[in-house]
Amino acid sequence: MIEVSGLNKQFRTPVVKEGRFAGLRTLFTREYRMKEAVKDISFTIHKGDFVGYIGPNGAGKSTTIKMLTGILHPSSGEVKINGVNLHQQRRQVAKRLGVVFGQRSQLWWDLPVKDSYDILAHMYKVTTQDKEKRLDELGELLDLKEFWLTPVRKLSLGQRMRADIAASMLHDPDVLFLDEPTIGLDVTAKRSIRGFLKKLNSEYGKTILLTTHDMDDIEQLCERVMVINHGELSYEGSIENLRDRIGLPTLIRVTFNGAYQLPVPDGLGLPIEVALDADHTFRIVEANNREVHIEANRQQVKAMDILRLVSGWGEVADIHMEEPDFEDVIHRVY
Ligand SMILES: Nc1ncnc2c1ncn2[C@@H]1O[C@H](COP(=O)(O)OP(=O)(O)OP(=O)(O)O)[C@@H](O)[C@H]1O
User: Fold this and answer.
1) Ligand 1 proximity of 59 Cβ (cutoff 6 Å)
2) CB burial class (10 A; 0-12, 13-18, 19+) of residue 169?
3) The ligand 1 atom nearest the CA atom of 213
4) For the whole model, what pTM was predicted?
5) Distances in Å between the alpha carbon of 137 and those of 114, 129, 158, 162, 166?
6) What Pfam families does the entry give (predicted)?
7) Residue of 62, 75, 226, 229 to test ligand 1 pocket, by largest number of atoms within 8 Å of CB
């Protein structure tokens, strides 16, 4: 379990002067500005959770992850992993954590993948027996054997990411922090990484916090999402609730068997608001010879009520519902 309370991080950065001899003047008369990268963040992640941590560029995601893994010391606030204070007992807690930074490998560039694992196992004091056992498992799960002896610099990005995920798992941590693990990957490599992460969570019980700009990662993997913006948590909850809160409409496409009659007076164009009752409406946005497109806010009206009404317009052949695109929902939160 991860318990974060009142976490803050301020960075002190020198103010760069403008104009002639700016560099020289900056050197002699130093002025500093405080940047609040993370502001009073609190949350709890339970064992076995798979949580997405998202936000626009510069929102404070990496800074949070660095504080959660002990790389950065918070300006104030507390992080407890399985009840132990991370920043007071860093060595003890670090053994329970694994971290992958998609943009930066923790493997040795010129060494074969296997040699990096030997060094990491030594650093984490993993016994040879445990290391071999884990590498057998991970090799199978992440399909590592095909590039076992290849120097890291010669790996494709997808292979490198799989190798990095295995490296983060070598000491068998309970908790994994993944910062952009699918960045730059093609569709196939993304799919395989998502498959591995899903397995690590559902079959191996790993608790995972995932940071990504890829909303498909979030939709396909996470039960819960936390949104950070300008250093502050602006949302925490399910993807479903987030959709409802933003209130983007669901699109309902109704196909009729032959002719149908819209309840719209002649001469009125589309889109048009249709009343279900005194308080509830939906919109017809498009109508062609066999299909009608309807937009409805599912928080306000029930799809069943709309469909009951629509079935009176003609003989319904098919109904297709499209939830709002998660990417669009997220842009509204940012
Ligand atoms: N070492 C540092 N010194 C000064 N400012 C920093 C430092 N690290 C981060 N910042 C600033 O803190 C803010 C948050 O940065 P952070 O890297 O955590 O954002 P992010 O959400 O991970 O962004 P991205 O999605 O672009 O990776 C940014 O304004 C950044 O410029």
Assistant:
1) yes
2) buried
3) 25
4) 0.81
5) 14, 13, 19, 13, 10
6) ABC_tran
7) 62
Q: Mind listing the pLDDT tens digit for each residue in 296-307?
A: 987 788 888 999
Whose CA is closest to 202, among 192, 214, 194? Answer: 194
How many CB atoms are closer than 10 A to CB 129? 8
Helix, coil or strand: residue 248: coil
**The pair of three-digit structure tokens given for residue 172, joined into one six-digit string:** 């068998």
CA 190-196-199 angle, 5° bins: 140
Query: pLDDT per residue over 119-167, tens digit each?
Result: 999 998 999 999 999 999 888 888 888 898 999 999 999 899 999 999 9
Q: Which residues pair with 112 in a beta bridge?
A: 151
Ligand 1 midpoint to CA 268 (Å) = 52
Nearest CA to ligand 1 atom 24: 57
The tokens describing 334, both together, are 């940012």
Angstrom distance (rounded) from CA 141 to CA 138: 5
C-alpha 163 to ligand 1 mean position (Å)? 26
CA 61 to centroid of ligand 1, rounded, Å = 8
**Does the Cβ of 207 fall within 6 Å of ligand 1?**
no
